[in-house]
Amino acid sequence: MGRLLPGRWGRDLASSMALMVALLAALPSWAADEDDFYRGKTITIIIPIGPGGAYDAYARLVSRHLGKQLPGNPLIIARNMPGGGGVIASNHLYNVAPRDGTALAIITSSFANEQLFGNPQIRYDARQFQAIGRLLDTTSVLFFWHTSPIKTLNDVLTKPATMAISSVNEIPAYRLTAMNRYLHTQLKAIPGYPSARDYVLASERGETDGGTSTYIGLSQLFSHYLRDKTLNILVQFALHRDPHMPDVPTVLELTRDPEATQIFRHLVSNDEIGRSLFTTPNVPIARLKLLRQAFQAMISDVDFQAEAAQLKLPLAPRSGEEMQKVIADLFDISSEALAKVRDVSKP
């Protein structure tokens, strides 16, 4: 028996070595297949909001630079798909778009919270989308046209006002509902406006007193209005004051009620997602890795950074792996807390 063990050990070792050699021989083929996948192909980046605004600007910026960082240098086109506060685009990405890494989206920052709120339009599981990387976090605000009756924070808290939004089934509308319930404001959501540009134009035409939009969207499209105080920003939706708006209070500063604070904290959490690039579920792992590596290379590219600066599009990037955890953490909420948060989505 003592002479059989070395022989068995030798045969096992030889078999293991043969298997390793076979696997190593196959690896270059797999890598070559992935490196060649995008050659001659077209990638589509879906934009969940209409033309104009930060979603559109960031998506088109990425479309001009990401392909250069992918093997095969695929053509990338940007396609607007507005509607439902971004839900139509997310539904399309989940249910219709090819699941091979050729369909991407600068996904609406509220896409995970929309699912948690039980939005009846949702036809996706936010946890199944695959994150490629984040370009920027965002801070949303309440703004008012300078000729409207709303001039000060006290006016927001005591006077009725109409606010332009995209849909009643979206986070901006839920924030207004929460303010009405817990801060006793009288903010009426007026839906049907596709983008930040339309929110501002609605207030300029007198159709609404103001609107709710991201600060970056307003600063990109209407910097002169902000500079001249034609648009007045009176509340920001954030955990902490944005450095660009040090004198504007956050909605959390307007209450000492623990329940209201918990709800507002969840309602502002999607700003961490900001302007992030996602792809469909079930993209092969090696291809997802290629997309994430290309995103990181793009972020570091001097030409990309120069164009972002020229377009006044700030960057606060995070990796795809980090953003995947952000989504998972959003769903880590007790049923009791979720019930309270969901209640604000009811009329």
Describe the structure.
The model is unreliable at 1-6 and 23-31 (pLDDT under 50). The protein has 14 helices and 11 strands. Strand 6, helix 6 (171-182) and strand 7 form a beta-alpha-beta unit. The chain is globular and about 65 Å long. The protein starts with a helix and ends with a helix. The strands form 2 sheets. A 6-stranded mixed beta sheet has the order 2-1-3-10-4-11, sandwiched between helices. The protein folds into 2 domains: 37-137 and 273-343, D-Maltodextrin-Binding Protein, domain 2; 140-268, Periplasmic binding protein-like II (D-Maltodextrin-Binding Protein, domain 2, 3-Layer(aba) Sandwich). The protein is of the alpha/beta class.
Tally of alpha and pi helices: 14
- H/E series: HEHEHEHEEHEHEHEHHEHEHHEHH
Q: What percent of the residues sit in helical stretches (DSSP H or I)? A: 40-55%
Q: Which segments are poorly predicted (pLDDT under 50) over 5 or more consecutive residues? A: 1-6, 23-31
The CATH superfamily title of the largest domain: Bordetella uptake gene, domain 1
If you average the pLDDT, what whole number results?
Answer: 89
Order of adjacent strands in the largest pleated sheet = 2-1-3-10-4-11
Task: Identify the CATH architecture of the largest domain.
Answer: 3-Layer(aba) Sandwich
Structural class designation? alpha/beta
CATH class annotation of the largest domain: Alpha Beta
